[in-house]
Amino acid sequence: MLLVLLASAGVIVYGIFLLNPTNRGDWLPYALVIVAETILVVHALLAMWTVLSSGHDPRGFTFHHAQDRLYDPTGLRQEPQGPPETWPVHLDDLPVSVDVFITTYGEDLGTIRRTVAAAVAMEGEHLTWVLDDGRSDEVRDLADELGARYLRRLSSNGAKAGNINHALSIATGEYFVILDADFVPEPDFLFETLPFFASQDVAFVQTPQTYGNTHNLISRGAGYMQAVFYRYIQPGRNRFNAAFSVGTNVIFRRSAIADIGGMYTDSKSEDVWTSLLLHEKGWRSVYIPKTLAVGDTPETIEAYTKQQQRWATGGFEIMFTHHPLSRKRTLTVDQRLQYSVTATHYLTGIAPLLLLAVPPLNIYFGLTPIDLQISPVTWVLYYAGFYVLQIAVAFYTLGSFRWEVLMLAAVSFPIYVRALVNALLRREQRWHVTGSRTGTASPFNFILPQVLVFVFLLLTSLVGAWRDLDAGAITLALAWNITNTLILGAFMVTALREHAASRRSNRERSAARHLQDQSDDIPELLPTGGTS
């Protein structure tokens, strides 16, 4: 909290410095800096305000009372009998029914097996359903083997939300859990979440997305990017009744979903939209920062690009078509602000594009955003008051400075620009599996804009170095541009490594197919005089 307060003060001081008319430089680079930094500063301040509210614990007397009697309605603390997955579940001393939905769409069988097996074995009586939009007979057989029920629908309308709505038309549980195919639940998932529904106004209980596959640069960056959100932002939103569902590791009250006509199907970000509609109806949400399922984060540039584009498009759709600040919305002031942050969050990913353009304007045209009448040391102190303290907060959250997060944040602007255009033009988004490992396309198929920007920045750095060496002094613009070049260069190196791994994987797969074809062509040999 002390770091957050210091960072908030640093943000305000930096903002005052930028807006001081005496510090204004040339209009074009100054405008780029002001627009970008305004987006970043406003979101930083709202995030700090939310984080400062994160000490609120949603577990009250009602929760603890219900938890004590979840498996023992008599309150005599009797040990439940039989396997844990058969223990009857009670709320308000009455038995309740629970469905567990596992949504699948082409994930590998090993991933699905781990999740289904863990879901079937969760404590508390429940039915586990595999909702297969991949229409795989192998998945059907796997569900039967593990003791889960299997559902397959005829069409894929509504993507994941449509899949869940189809299941709700068949399953009858009063509460239902949603798990993505790659999120393996802990045995006590129901024990830690169901008691919140003893309060009749709770629509859903969300738990964090925790990742177990942070073994390469992309997966670490993608996973750690969300650490502050799940550890501090979502808990802070509890105080404002604005914590939203993230689509997995969540349990819903069936009657609440029925109240809004089912899961929202007109967006691929059905989780945020469904949460928004529930809050508009007066329902309450709960978030608990306790890991109750562990899954996979994107491991490739392709998977990361598709995931971020889907999430960003959903946020921008809210901004353009259902803005929370509109007078039509039946939300509290706090909820309006929190959902406005959600709707505009990915603008912070476009801001780096504006800042990348500032050093080249100085190197090629001599335009400067700030007229520095102060010493470089003073300027660095203002700058550090914003950025360095932000890094300090992230450092404390993650336990170390994760440069992968900085890299992905700096190079993701083409994804968010494309998402902004998609939302503006109402383009349909295809559904993509976040943790899919089936794709072996080259990462360069997805990062052409980043490659072009890297080449431009590299050439600009060479031009700037030639100019500054000729003048006998290194300028701030060159140092800034070289830093940006190195960040994008690290991303290029990552893409090259992934490209090489992709080619090896394709060769191995081709060789395996060739061997299989050869074995299929060899006739079966029988011993002389034998019978078949």
Explain how this protein is built.
55% of the residues lie in helices and 9% in strands. The termini are far apart. The strands form 3 sheets. It has a 7-stranded mixed β-sheet, with helices on both faces. Strands 7-12-9 form a 3-stranded mixed β-sheet. The protein has a two-stranded antiparallel sheet with strand order 1-2. Helix 5 links the parallel strand 4 and strand 5. It is globular, with a radius of gyration of 26 Å. By secondary structure, it is of the alpha/beta class.
Please describe the topology of this protein.
Elements: H1 2-19, H2 27-51, H3 61-68, E1 90-91, E2 94-95, E3 98-104, H4 109-120, E4 127-132, H5 137-146, E5 149-151, H6 159-168, E6 175-180, E7 184-185, H7 189-193, E8 202-206, E9 210-211, H8 217-224, H9 227-238, E10 250-253, H10 254-259, H11 270-280, E11 284-287, E12 293-295, H12 301-321, H13 333-344, H14 347-356, H15 358-365, H16 376-398, H17 403-411, H18 413-425, H19 448-471, H20 476-521
Characteristics of this structure?
532 residues, alpha/beta, seven-stranded mixed sheet, 20 helices, 9% strand, disordered C terminus
The radius of gyration computed from the alpha-carbon positions, rounded to a whole number of angstroms, is: 26 Å
Strand content: 5-15%
Terminal CA distance reads 77 Å
Structural class determined from secondary elements: alpha/beta
Q: Average the pLDDT over all residues and give the rounded result.
A: 88
> How many strands, which pairing sense, and closed or not: the largest β-sheet?
7 strands, mixed
> Helix amount, in percent?
40-55%
Q: List the uncertain runs.
A: 525-532
The shape is: globular
Widest sheet: strand ordering: 5-4-3-6-10-8-11
Compute the number of strand runs.
12
| DSSP summary: helix tally | 20
